[in-house]
Amino acid sequence: MSITTSEFSGRRRLVLKGAGVAALIGLGVVAIAPQALAANDKYPEDAFKQKGQADAIKALYGKTAEPSDKVKMDAPEIAENGAVVPVSVTTTLTDVTSISFLVAENPNALAASYRIPAGTVPSVANRLKMAKTTNVTAIVEAGGKLFSATKEVKVTVGGCGG
């Protein structure tokens, strides 16, 4: 099947117009997203600056967490490269509003924090940077309470300049 030059030009124009519309829509989403974030949540800058886990949890949530078997964290027992340690957390708790990862011996304990919109599956995965062997803690906020799971991860090569 062959197409003529004019058919090709027509199809090309159609593709370019579609790409242009998609780009404009994307720009609109990018312009709206930061405003939506600013209206609903403030970036927890103070919590990310804390050196210890307890201080970071207090700065982020204002309360303490209790261990729960309903929070399942998957992390390797031994991480060969501390620069990219895969961790994930899932939970069977209902009304989950946030999930955070803390690394006890890192220069700053809070490694990541996620807001979980209502109606979404409470599951998060990330690759954390770890300076040395230490505990990784997942904090799940559900129903106004904090729940946690902790696992020690042995790091053979440090990821924070080690």
Automatic annotation (TrEMBL):
**Per its UniProt record, what InterPro entries does this chain match?**
SoxY (IPR032711), SoxY_sf (IPR038162), Sulphur_oxidation_SoxY (IPR016568), TAT_signal (IPR006311)
Q: Where is the Ig-like SoxY domain?
A: 58-160
The organism sits in which domain of life? Answer: Bacteria
PROSITE patterns found in the cross-reference section: TAT
Q: Which residues cross the membrane?
A: none
Record's protein name: Thiosulfate oxidation carrier protein SoxY
Q: Which organism is it from?
A: Bradyrhizobium jicamae
